[in-house]
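Narrative of activities, Objective 1.

The group set out to show that a structural description can be obtained from nothing but a protein's sequence at a throughput compatible with the screening campaign. Below is one input-output pair from the validation batch, recorded exactly as produced.
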Amino acid sequence: MKLLFEKSLPGSCGRYLPDSDVPEYALPEDALRKTPPALPELSETELSRHYSALSRRTYGVNCGFYPLGSCTMKYNPRINEELAALPGFTEVHPLQPEHTVSGCRAVLDLAEDALCRVTGMDAMSFQPAAGAHGEFTGLLLIRAYHRARGDFKRMKILVPDSAHGTNPASAAMAGFDVVNLPSREDGLVDLDALRRAAGEDTAGLMLTNPNTLGLFDTGIREIADIVHEAGGLLYYDGANLNAVLGVARPGDMGFDVVHLNLHKTFSTPHGGGGPGSGPVGCKEALRPYLPASRLAGAVSPESIGQVRAFHGNFLVVVRALAYLLSLGSDGLLEASETAVLNANYLLHRLSPKYKAAYSGRCMHEFVLTLEDLKSETGVSALDLAKALADRGIHPPTMYFPLIVHEALMLEPTETETKETLDEAADLFLELYKAAHDRPELLKNAPLNTPVRRPDEVAAARNPVLRYTPGEAAQE
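Output recorded for this entry:
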């Protein structure tokens, strides 16, 4: 597909701007470009066709099954989009006087109350722009808490080996030393290893429950006791909260601080670079350290300050509040129960041929290991994923978590029907048979997608990050 620059024809345009009704302002000569910008020139028709063609190449939850593990790619009701597009929300300015944005303030207050009820927290900030940003913010709260007590030796954050990769990265960015905790054979936290690691230098433990393997750690209260008795705090990664809404609350499990992914759990389109939102909630003891906000009234002198300009991605919060109010407590519970049911049903359908990385029931997601399949046929998890793309299904998450070899992680979510799950299961089983009968079909896949198999090693080592005029577009 050609780039806009390659389609450009000198003199083509599609301008429909009215004549200016204000005096023209002439910039000083030293502020003007010496050469015109190298912008593409196209007619309105060509521009429309270009973006329509791009949209046909884009795969989203509105196109088909999207079982991307750990990402909760579920359908987002249109009503939430319509509410977020109301002029009273889209045409405000963050520097307006507070009395002129009372409706926006009400949205933030209502969302904070609802999300605190859902998580068992006492206060919440909407400033963080995404999940990893929320992790970083939550860790700064933990650091501020210990420093306010004069406890500067607590510089270690414990992170299970099944954690999201952003957990150790966020901890390192916040200035902590990361201590890796091994998992037991059942995929849960090794309590003996935790006891050995927790001590006077422990600032906290980062954990998601259910974890990245899709397993609920039933020893969570004991985990919390071990960390708290050592003087540390518990941080809850909210990436998997969709599994326990209305069933269990992080605050009741013993967690002190939590981040939420509004763009995963609470109905904002997920992917494509944003916008996201990663609000951080905390228990009362950490409230003084929350990011400062003018709308919150008097700012605590112990606040960690602002982590983002103004009040965060406000329209994402509007969508989340619409989702919360439309479902209510019963609806949230039903959503989580259905997500868990769907995951277990799909796992059951696949279990005659595919091997689960860990036995037993899963929560909202599960991890398959294709290690045996690769040994038998030479077909890898990557090969199977590429073949799925050929059949109109977005591949699941590949090779994650790292503790599972040849991993495929699937999260069907609550918005998929039984019919869709059956179609997906049938295709997985069909490809399993093809891997044994005609493995070359999977090794050469995909055949029908706009992009075949790129040289991923070369792309990672020598990425082409900018367009150079005169060079042909690369598929």
